[in-house]
Specification:
The complex is a heterodimer of chains A (about 575) and B (about 300). By secondary structure, chain A is of the alpha+beta class. Chain A has 18 helices and 20 strands. Among the domains of chain A are: about 120 residues, Tumour Suppressor Smad4, CATH 2.60.200; about 110 residues, no CATH class; about 110 residues, no CATH class. The longest helix of chain A has 26 residues. The longest helix of chain B is centred in the C-terminal third of the chain and has 36 residues. Chain B contains eleven helices and no strands. Chain B is elongated, with a radius of gyration of 29 Å. The chains are: A alpha+beta (about 575), B mainly alpha (about 300). Chains A and B meet through helix 1 and helix 2 of A and helix 4, helix 5, helix 6, helix 10 and helix 11 of B.
């Protein structure tokens, strides 16, 4: 086999000199030994460094005889099958396999490696010896990180505000869109539209406006009359000043005492006398005595309850009823069904909501003892617990029927009333007989009514006054109006059910009350035995909103008051400046 | 720790940072906003503004440190302030958030900032620890001198190996070929440690000698001088002399390459944290812009 060994040496100024050599043999030996086909004098080369042979299929086989191997196309190999164009590095010499010219079986080209060899690069500055000289830079990742973050965190969300279509896309791709701007968990009632930022944040760079709130909360009422109290601190507040969302599921309705007391301090001065409400600073330390609403009527006869402090001397309720609680709460009370002990709950039952008491009713609660029977002959028969006229009507009807039927064995009655008549056998009453019978019935009714109204029944509880009809001379009665103060404290919320662990007597001194004029409502001191202001650590911490609401019944609707808010007005609110 | 950036000007910036942190904490405790502390209260905005100003100023350090002609404070003073004020940002920003975190861009900014600060802590540690280690490792030589000596030793070892026979020469050229110093980012930080492999080679060689088997797997022999002793027993005394010299040369070379690798590694450790510190700072700047714009966009 005929090998062509071409040595290419580069001279100065780009001149190239070529020296051809021919080698006969199956194998081309490479090494530092004198007998080598390719002789390389470099000490790094072994005496017998490697062999190159041509395979039948036109490929070449290189075998390293040195354990250090040979660098082929940049990689160290012990053995490799090569094609034309392969580059073999041995020390400082590059051996390339080239296309053999005509008349030769195989050809290699030898050239000196200019500059450092791969190995020398390792020991020179060409090999990276500091992080700064590696491919990894700081600048490029820094700019990529900057623009990627800006795109994801700012540009995509901001454009989705103006182009909702983008948000549809980001949501489908589960990308962080507009909702990634949320500053915290939504309040529980707002969560169902919490993904729709624009439903509250309608305009960019404008804080949430009241009109967005009242688009749902149309029925919410104001705190005070906007005409009477046209003050910046009331009228220029936005809903969001108190109701700050994005602060967790429970943070929307605030109970902080100072939200109220900031204003309810010296209110008459602050309002230039338009409000006369007393100063409130704290339930435990600075709250006026409770006021009860006592039933009263105006000169025109309209119901106009009077607000009276509960500790006023001589406080007296005028309900129109006589009811000594003490007599009813004694042990072994005599009753038709035997001796019994009445409880508060015998008469006072909670309404289903648990806040207030159901009204006391005569029939289920009083009548078992206070029966309205009127005639010993029929002791089970009772007059209704109703209007005077109904009672008289019922009595007259009752006695007229007895008188006309006859057989009413009353010694004071005339014979026509007492005699028995068999229907269909005995002749009908004559006109004179009927007149006599009905006359008796009327006088008997009046007699019984007088006894009921003035003697033993009605007057027990009611104040009854008697009148006489000028024309007929017949007596009539008037029952004083009854008005039990159903709601003693209409300006606060009190729930009996929440206080079920307590005995009634802890608040209501009923057992010693001898008259229904006593107001059995507890004064503030009673509540303060357990409750104190919101800061209290030893008692039940009680904020204003435990009993009072901010949005008051009867005030104008917020939807009528809501106005727009601008960036400036929001800034003013933040800095506490009046607008 | 005499005269480092930490105790610069008698800890002046430590006291400044502590004062800012303590004042922020006191204000946070005293302030009792409704409904709860958050970035949207006046204190929240104040701490947030302070945080932004400090972050921008800390970022400016990257520019200041390249302005060699600047005489506005010493660079050491700037670094001292950079470290201490950067640390105080943890307090300022956490109080700014009111400890409200969530899956949102605001928390992204916070997390990026913490990444920057904690990578900076590694940098502080590296700057305090490694310069001394580098000096110790170099033992009064420079890296260039060590590299020159390695090249010289390579040449010597080749000459000695040539006298010791073909096999030894092969091992030595392989050893030179496979010596690696520096290289990729990863390789600089974690240079190949040949000692474990060398130990395995010793054992393997001894075992093969006991079996009187001189065929040695040449593929797995990066450390030549261990081999040399084993081979010395099998060859003549003229070669033995060359071999003993070769052992010394290779041993010296191994120690030098180790030192250079360690030098490169230590230097890389001093730089590597910057590959997090700097790019994440840029991400933080973008997140901060997004945070501020978003807050006022939907405020």
């Amino acid at each position: 086999m005929r090998w062509l060994i071409r040595k290419v040496s580069r001279r100065r100024k780009g001149a190239v000199s070529i020296e051809d050599d021919t080698h006969f043999g199956e194998v081309l030996t490479i090494g530092r030994g004198a007998d080598q086909a390719i002789f390389l004098s470099d000490l790094k080369v072994a005496l017998n460094h490697a062999t190159l042979s041509r395979l039948a299929n036109g490929k070449y086989q290189l075998e390293s005889l040195s354990p250090g191997g040979v660098r082929i196309n940049g990689m160290i190999e012990q053995q490799a099958t090569l094609a034309i164009g392969a580059k073999i590095e041995v020390a400082q010499t590059l051996i390339s396999i080239v296309e053999p010219p005509r008349g030769v079986d195989a050809a290699v080209e030898l050239s000196a490696i200019e500059g450092p060899t791969s190995q020398e690069k390792i020991l020179s500055r060409a090999q990276a010896t500091s992080l700064a000289s590696t491919k990894l830079s700081k600048r490029r990742p820094a700019w990529i990180a900057f623009f990627a973050t800006l795109l994801l965190c700012l540009l995509i969300p901001a454009t989705s505000h103006f182009l909702p279509g983008i948000e549809t896309v980001t949501r489908k791709l589960h990308l962080a869109g507009l909702t990634s701007w949320t500053s915290g968990a939504m309040a529980a009632p707002h969560q169902f539209f919490g993904q729709e930022c624009r439903s509250c944040h309608a305009q960019a760079f404008v804080s949430t406006r009241n009109q967005e709130c009242v688009s749902c909360h149309a029925e919410t009422t104001a705190h005070a009359d906007p005409v009477k109290f046209d003050m910046p601190i009331l009228q220029d507040q936005s809903c969001a000043d108190c109701h700050k969302d994005h602060n967790g599921p429970e943070a929307l309705i605030r109970a902080e005492q100072r939200l109220c007391t900031d204003c309810h301090m010296n209110l008459p001065t602050r309002t230039q006398g338009r409000s006369r409400l007393a100063t409130v600073t704290d339930f435990g330390a600075g709250h006026p005595q409770f006021q009860v609403s006592l039933a009263a009527w105006s000169a025109k006869g309209q119901f106009a309850p009077q607000r009276v402090p509960i500790d006023r001397k001589g406080l007296s309720e005028n309900s129109g009823l006589k009811f000594p609680h003490d007599k009813h709460l004694v042990a072994d009370l005599n009753s038709p069904s035997g001796r019994k002990q009445l409880q508060c709950s015998s008469c006072h039952a909670l309404e289903p909501g648990g806040a207030k008491m159901l009204p006391v009713d005569f029939e289920p609660m009083c009548q078992e003892c206070h029966q309205l029977n009127f005639d010993t002959k029929i002791p089970t028969r009772q007059v209704p617990h109703g209007k005077v006229a109904e009672v008289i009507f019922m009595l007259e009807g009752f006695y007229s029927k007895r008188a006309l039927e006859g057989g009413w064995m009353d010694t004071t009655a005339p014979a026509v009333v007492r005699s028995r008549r068999r229907p269909g056998v005995d002749p009908a009453l004559s006109s004179a007989q009927r007149t006599e019978a009905l006359s008796w019935a009327r006088s008997r009714s009046a007699q019984v009514a007088t006894s009921l109204f003035e003697g033993r029944a009605c007057v027990t509880c009611h104040t009854v006054s008697r009148t006489v009809d000028d024309t007929t001379g017949e007596p009539n009665w008037a029952i004083a109006p009854v008005r039990v103060a159903g709601v003693w404290f209409p300006k606060s919320q009190f729930t009996h059910r929440k206080h079920e662990t307590m005995a009634c007597a802890e608040c209501h001194q009923a057992a010693t009350s001898k008259t229904s004029n006593d107001v059995l409502m507890p004064p503030i001191e009673n509540c303060r035995e357990c409750h104190a202001g919101e800061e209290s650590k030893t008692q039940v911490a009680t904020a204003c909103t435990s009993c009072h609401g901010f949005h008051l019944d009867g005030q104008a609707k917020m939807s009528a008051l809501a106005g727009g808010q601008t960036l400036k007005s929001s800034f003013d609110t933040l800095l506490g400046k009046p607008k | 720790m005499h005269g480092t950036f930490l105790n610069h000007s008698r800890f002046r910036y430590l006291w400044v940072a502590l004062a800012i942190s303590v004042i922020s904490i006191i204000a946070y405790i005293w302030h009792d906003p409704i409904p709860r502390p958050n970035g949207g209260t006046w204190l929240g905005y104040t701490l947030g503004t302070l945080g932004v100003v400090i972050i921008l100023w800390l970022t400016w350090f990257g520019i200041r440190k390249r302005r060699y002609s600047s005489s506005f404070g010493t660079l050491k003073g700037w670094l001292s302030a950079h470290v201490y004020l950067g640390t105080s940002l943890i307090v300022i920003t956490l109080l700014h958030t009111g400890f409200q975190m969530g899956w949102n861009i605001h928390s992204v900014a916070l997390v990026l900032m913490l990444m920057v600060i904690f990578s900076g802590f590694f940098g502080v540690w590296a700057y305090l620890r490694f310069p001394e280690a580098i000096t110790q490792n170099r033992q009064n030589a420079t890296r260039e001198a060590m590299l020159a000596e390695i090249a010289e030793l390579n040449q010597q070892s080749l000459q000695l190996a040539d006298q010791a026979g073909t096999k030894v020469h092969g091992r030595v050229t392989a050893s030179i070929e496979r010596t690696q110093i520096g290289g990729s980012f990863w390789r600089q930080l974690f240079p190949k440690d040949a000692s474990a492999g060398a130990f395995l080679d010793v054992r393997k060689t001894l075992e093969s000698m006991e079996r009187k088997d001189s065929t040695i797997d040449t593929q797995n022999l990066p450390t030549m001088f261990v081999m040399v002793d084993a081979l010395a027993s099998q060859i003549g005394s003229k070669e033995q002399d060359a071999l003993r010299k070769l052992v010394d040369v290779l041993s010296r070379k191994k120690s030098l390459t180790g030192s250079v690798s360690r030098d490169i590694q230590l230097k890389a450790m001093m730089d590597v944290w910057l590959y997090i510190h700097v790019p994440v700072t840029f991400a933080l700047l973008a997140a901060l812009i997004a945070h501020v714009v978003a807050v006022f966009f939907y405020w």
